[in-house]
Automatic annotation (TrEMBL):
The keyword Transferase applies. Belongs to the glycosyltransferase 6 family. This is Globoside alpha-1,3-N-acetylgalactosaminyltransferase 1-like. It is a single-pass type II membrane protein. It is found in: Membrane. InterPro entries: Glyco_trans_6 (IPR005076), Nucleotide-diphossugar_trans (IPR029044). Pfam families: Glyco_transf_6. Keywords: Glycosyltransferase, Manganese, Membrane, Metal-binding, Signal-anchor, Transferase, Transmembrane, Transmembrane helix. GO terms for cellular component: Golgi apparatus; membrane; vesicle. Its cofactor is Mn(2+). One of its GO terms (molecular function) is hexosyltransferase activity. An alpha-L-fucosyl-(1->2)-beta-D-galactosyl derivative binds at residues 211, 223, 281. Gene3D superfamilies: Spore Coat Polysaccharide Biosynthesis Protein SpsA, Chain A.
Length: 332
């Protein structure tokens, strides 16, 4: 339950946001900026050689499409040679956000170093790191065409507020800074590490990741919020998948709508003195129930732990780093 206190975080930015020229101010207030939108289609060049795709042969041990016809990405469902060559032509920028407050700054080094080895290698990535201790950010070598921006935020006493506060911070970041600077965004947990390729196969309008502990669970046993008083409420007979709160992404416009909606729903819950069972992850799951993702990533993209295995997981791309919750979090 909500234990009182301030529900929302206000950011103190190192540099103030500026009103961008692509925002229009009307009598109703500021309306959405014109999102940078590239409409290249999936163009391929003549002479690129790759394995013939099959209409008949594919993964048979997992589903690679949802009931609303969105692809589910597993190892064996895409060809990196082909898909990289298609997206290379689009000159994309992928914004990637992480938060490291309090003791979570210890995860930054491994996250960034491993991302530089595996995450959108060969593509332009702009990392945005939100922290209450900018001075503690380690010196990590970031590749050519890639960059790291550090944003100072207020420290908070409850891990739940830190985790939930991300939605508002992301909403503002997209609104004020990213509109003309990035094409896609991924929002990731920091207590994580990359061990394998994560590339353009993951791009889509709205992208969710299937939670690593609940990909083989009946929906009435998903850890959705079950109290009707919460905006995140999902009844036992509804729901598609249980999505991880630790990774989601998509186009700026879609992720802006997602973060704005979750921020609003969190705020209604706070006003009603209720905190969803898994905080913003519960609200994210409600959002994805009502706004179906256009692409789903398998748990390869957010695994339990590097030492855990499952028959369906042929490669671990990105995984949680084990942590002592009592030691690392600011409150129980
Ligand atoms: C794998 C997965 O889906 N994880 C989700 C899960 O537990 P987790 O155990 O993964 O939550 P967590 O402790 O990692 O907190 C989420 C994130 O908040 C940030 N943080 C948190 C505490 C702190 O003191 N400092 C700090 O910076 C940090 O970026 C961290 O990665 O549920 C959380 C909400 O209940 C979030 O939805 C997480 O994304
Ligand atoms: Mn985490």
């Amino acid at each position: 339950m909500w234990s009182g206190g301030v529900a929302y975080v206000k950011l103190i930015y190192l540099n103030n946001y500026q009103c961008r020229c692509n925002q229009q101010i009307t009598e109703q207030g500021i309306i959405n900026p014109e999102w940078k939108q590239k409409t290249f289609g999936l163009r391929s060049s003549p002479g690129i050689l790759y394995n013939q795709p099959s209409a008949l042969v594919g993964r048979t041990d997992v589903a690679s499409v949802t009931s609303w016809s969105a692809p589910i990405i597993w190892e064996g469902t895409f060809d990196s040679t082909l898909i990289d060559s298609i997206y290379k032509q689009q000159n994309l920028t992928i914004a990637t956000t992480v938060f490291a407050l309090g003791k979570y700054t210890r995860f930054v080094k491994d996250f960034l170093e491993s991302a530089e080895q595996h995450f959108f290698v060969g593509f332009r990535v702009h990392y945005y790191l939100f922290t209450d201790q900018p001075e503690s950010v380690p010196d990590v070598k970031i590749g050519e065409n890639r960059s790291l921006a550090v944003r100072k935020v207020q420290s908070l006493n409850r891990w739940q507020d830190i985790s939930m506060g991300r939605m508002e911070n992301l909403e503002k970041l997209i609104e004020n800074e990213l509109a003309s600077e990035a094409d896609y965004i991924f929002c990731l947990d920091i207590d994580t590490k990359f061990y394998g390729h994560w590339g353009v196969e993951s791009l889509g309008r709205l992208v969710g990741v299937i939670h690593p502990w609940l990909f083989n669970t009946p929906r009435n046993r998903f850890t959705y919020e079950r109290r009707p008083e919460s905006q995140a409420y999902i009844p036992a007979e509804e729901g598609d998948y249980y999505y991880a709160g630790a990774a989601f992404g998509g186009s700026l416009e879609d992720v802006h709508h997602l973060t704005k909606t979750c921020r609003e729903q969190l705020s209604i819950d706070a006003a009603n003195s209720i905190e969803a069972i898994w905080q913003e992850e519960s609200h994210l799951n409600k959002y994805f129930l009502l706004n179906k993702p256009s692409k789903l990533l398998s748990p390869e993209y957010m695994w339990r732990d590097i030492n855990e295995s499952a028959a369906q997981i042929k490669i671990i791309r990105f995984t949680n780093v084990p942590k002592n919750y009592a030691e690392v979090r600011p409150n129980p």
